[in-house]
Amino acid sequence: MYWEPEQERMSGEELAQLQLERLESTLNRVYRNVPFYRKKFDELGISPEEIGSLSDLPRLPFTTKEDLRQNYPYGLFAVPMREVVRIHASSGTTGMSTVVGYTRNDIKTWSNLVARVLTAGGVTKDDVVQISFGYGLFTGGFGLHYGAERIGASVIPASSGNTARQIKIMMDFKTTALVGTPSYAMLVAETIREMGIPVSALSLKYGLFGAEPWSEGMRQEIQDKLGIVATDNYGLSEVLGPGVSGECQERRGLHISEDHFLVEVIDPETLTPVAAGQAGELVITTLTKEAFPMIRYRTRDLTSLLTEACPCGRTGRLMSRVVGRTDDMLIIKGVNVFPSQIESVLFEIEGTEPHYQIVIDRKRAMDEVTVLVEAAESIFFDQMRRQSGMVETIRKRLAHELGISVDVKLVEKKTLQRFEGKAKRVVDNRKL
Amino acid sequence: MLRLRNVESGYGRLRVLRKVTMHVRAGEIVTIIGANGAGKSTLLRTVAGLLRARSGEILFDTREIGNLPPEKIVFLGCSLVPEGRQLFAPMTVRENILLGAYPQFRKNGGSAVGNDFERVYGIFPLLREREKQLAGTLSGGEQQMLAIARALMARPKLIMMDEPSMGLAPMIMKDIFSIVTSLRKGGDTVLLVEQNAKAALGIADRGYVLETGRIIMEGTAETLLSNRDVQRAYLGRDLDAEGKM
Fold first, then answer.
1. The pTM is what?
2. What three-state secondary structure class fits B6?
3. Of the candidates B22, B211, B228, which has its C-beta nearest A21's C-beta?
4. Torsion over CA: B209, B214, B219, B220 (sign)
5. Considering the domain A335-428 in this protein, what is its CATH number?
6. Which residues in chain A touch residue B227, judged by CB atoms under 8 angstroms apart?
7. DSSP state of A294
8. Using the beta-carbon criterion (under 8 Å), do B19 and A22 form an inter-chain contact?
9. Domains in chain B with CATH codes
10. Chain segment A185-212, per-residue pLDDT in tens
11. N or C: which end of chain A has fewer CB within 10 A?
12. Least CB-CB distance to B215: which of A18, A24, A82?
């Protein structure tokens, strides 16, 4: 089953022509409409007219998360605000999130691309789709919602959290497809077991998971415990949100919608392309975005482009599951967290030392974060009440900054390991 | 069917097209919209061989046609209905149509031409009624039909039309556009250049927006119709005023 058979099975030659047309028109538009790109191209002495082939792509400058931050909030928009019908944001370091916009057409494109992913994962108009991604600034909830609605499936916008209630909904509403993070699927599986509910009481057939890295082992476990076909899908708000790529039932890798995204895999050190099939950092250029086009965006996600064709008939190349990051960003409960965000909060709080450690565990399939902070000596001589007040303050500030709740523990001065050179402040005990 | 890559073209020292990359697939109606002077006609004239591309490639059915003279291009199956019809006013309707039959006459002989006459008269019954009339005495809409009929006599695989609605009353324009649609239903492929972007996008499958010789947007007709830039610039909607209402 395909959502857009013509586009998803386009021949290589046809695709190359379309990509070049769309690349050239995107460059013409960003050069005209986005001062940031115009300046960058001018500085490098590149005019959009010089890009006459897909192999000229490496001549264009990269765009980074830092560029997005410096142009916060609307600096990289390519259309006037009155044409923007939606704004999403993703978390970033030091309190400045990255803001992305969508025109009416962008929302349509988004819906279609997610519909492709859902269809590839098995979902049809006869399915009841429960979306357990958070709805909000995060693109996961809305993106999958639009795609499922576009297909004509019955969509349950369950959003995240309240697992017992989600399971009740799943049983009562006869949910056939679950959408969310893989770790949430694990939690659901464990919870129904604890509640003594047999898998046969559920109507689940498919699971479409994303927003965080997961392994083949975890997939097996989810599939076995929930009795579903679980597929991986990928996206990031900077280039669209979910819908960039997704697995088909073959589960051999994620088909990239190459008619909408031009992908490269580079060595994050040398910034040159890696050999075919080698792992590296994924770089994406959008080909159809109106409000927020991105030229060579460095995703910081590590993946590789697979060379073999897929028997499903889709011609979009396969990328391997994302295996990690090239920066220190953590994905906790599907939310992007930078250690520097935590650091900046701690710096603002009196009575703490600039020494901290972030410990991440996965208990009952859910991520738990504990931040260990060294307290200034004076605090420990004081009363308990002040201590717990301080822990509470830090907890609240962190929750506010990160958008997820974390545990905070004060430790005595000089108890945390000291580092020479690059500090290793994150201890990630999760086994993915 | 037609594929352009980085085509540059112009008149004398004037560079009009700057790296135009586009394509038309068999069975599609593709439209190029853009303001006056954007390079729409230059594009069609370059494909037809009336202007030589300075660089880039033009492939028609995978064959490079950038260096071919116009008559060879017509023989290959790519015909142009030129802007302003370009009929021979002192000749009859039938004679004008016959002029378009030369490639088929050379390829398949006189009997084939007879069949082609029947085909175009089937599409344009009005021209049969007026076949003895001088072309110059026809109304604007009839002249446009005649120009299309003449182009069809070459049995083109791709028919390019340059501003077919120019100077026509809205009612007549509607007729011309429904003829274009019926051509596609008959399996023909159409590349349509129009100032009347709304009408063109109304019948097209896909479109390109040309601005000062550059393509700034590509998409399905539906996408372009709902693009606010296109609406403001080419569809004549005053979005600011609408916002205030």
1. 0.86
2. strand
3. B22
4. positive
5. 3.30.300.30
6. 103, 105, 290
7. -
8. no
9. 1-77+158-245 (3.40.50.300), 84-155 (no CATH)
10. 988 998 999 999 999 999 999 999 998 8
11. N
12. A24
